[in-house]
Amino acid sequence: MCIVIQTKGLFKAYGKMEAVQNLDLTIEEGTVFGFIGPNGAGKSTTMQILATLLKPTSGQAWVAGFDVVKEAAEVRKRIGYMPDFFGVYDNLTALEYLEFYGACYGLSQETCTQVGLELLELVNLLDKRDEQVDLLSRGMKQRLGLARALVHDPDLLILDEPASGLDPRARIEFRAILKELGQMGKTILISSHILPELGDLCDAIGVMEQGKLIAQGSVADITAQIQPGRVVKITVLDRMEEALKWLEMQEEVEQVQSDKETLTVRLDGDEIVQAQLLSKLVGAGFTISQFAEAQVNIEDVFMNVIRSHVEVSENEVDSETIS
Amino acid sequence: MKLIQKLFHNPILSKELQWRMRVKKTPWLIALYLVIVAGIVFTVLSLQDLNRVATFDSGANIWVYTGLSFLNLLMLAFIVPGITAGLISGERERQTLDVLLTTNLSSSQIIYSKWIASLSFVLMLLLLSSPLYVIVYLYGGISPAHIWQSILHLMVTVLFLGSLGIFYSTWIKRTGIATVLTYASVAFIGIGLPLIYILMWQFPYFQVLNGQHWIFNALLSLHPASSLAYVISGDFGLFSNGNHSWHFYWIYIGFYTVLSAILMFWSTYLLSPIRFRRFGFSKKVK
Ligand SMILES: Nc1ncnc2c1ncn2[C@@H]1O[C@H](COP(=O)(O)OP(=O)(O)OP(=O)(O)O)[C@@H](O)[C@H]1O
Ligand SMILES: [Mg+2]
What is the ipTM of this complex? Predict the structure, then answer.
């Protein structure tokens, strides 16, 4: 696997404001990487550095092996960047808009037209090809912006909150397009506030907070990082009370909660422990109708990551003041 | 040849020209320009005709010609800053600059194609006013040298005003402020320099020198009107009393050509997001 994005000790300060602090990031080819974080976390700043629009204060970053500062021209050929806010030119039609950017990448006139039409089709704007871009709706502009980022067929897409301002249906459509692009083998770096959306789109996510990457990995990894062990939902057909007591006595079970029909069990362990618990339960004679790992809401994960991070830093402060 | 081809296949250039031609007010601007210039020239010419029924005075025609050139200069001083001061800051305000900078176009390509695009529009205005020059020429008293010298002078002035506008447009984020600063600089050259000149004559120290100080020469060289008048009407006694050793015209051409080049280069530097450090030493990290 090729590494498409790599940063080492990336640091960006605006005066005293340290927007990105010692960021180490590695993203492999073909990954859809989601960047999550609250407002002002430094997501856009990181993306601008990777898009060669901002010079890092210190540290280094490479895209497809090229240094974003020293080999910016090479990097630009390989990325499609969509800023969080962007404008369009007036007096241009949707097709002309794409043709213009095609020409900016040095494509010939015919190629521009052909690529333009293909991309308009990809983002479902073919019927708007002759409309003025400045008169398109926000969602349409957003989709056109994505098409524009694709004119030169880049390997890496850097999309800064591409779904902002879209209605729910447009969001689903947008996500479908991104999934399609992901399947085409493009590496995508996407930032968002809307966490559940990133969850099933991304292969990996990175959580940023106050300029620091506080967690990175697959959604499952991060879940594990926050709450070691796993949560299993068990439905027994009868002897509910007995099952509850039995579970509480097991060594690997940390906590059991019961509501009407299901028992929610927090386990200290991995898949194997989970499987062993099931066979023990069956062995103990309980009739199990359902036994499944609970779906963790990515929103909860996110809040947990941030909360635990804040707690950790508060602890640090405490221990510092004590010593 | 290849360079020219590359220059004109530039997407920004063609889009910009296309855009200007699509804007509805463009034909009006062209028409207005021609009406004003032609109106004044014909008025002056007909007034002259009335005055010189008896004697044909081709010497006076040179003043009509000079006036026409000055008029063109004045119009350009109003038009060019208006067109160029929004070229880069306009992209910034429209939030299209970032995207443009991530394309294969280098910042120098962006600057130069915008510069050429806006100046070709201005040059077209000049070209459209050229029949007036021919008419004045036909009245006699003007040599071909006068014609090409004033054309070169106009071109250099246009190029300079264009690069000045682009420079402010790149340096200042807001189009409004960039426009004001550009006009202010133009006003300084057009009005400020003569004012300084007049003020200096008020000092006894300079009066004794009788205009023989280098500052007088510099002021006259850097002003578009005096430098142009130097070649056109130099033989007609305007500057003959001063014994000026400087060739105002060529100093003007040289100075503003170099200044334009510096401004363009500087703009390119300011525009590139990751500024090159070809000059000076980069800090070594310990
Ligand atoms: N041009 C700038 N000048 C000064 N400070 C800036 C600039 N751009 C960003 N910042 C600061 O850097 C920090 C990070 O900003 P950034 O835009 O990267 O955050 P973000 O994660 O993209 O936030 P959001 O989710 O709101 O888009 C913020 O505190 C912001 O105030
Ligand atoms: Mg942002």
Answer: 0.79
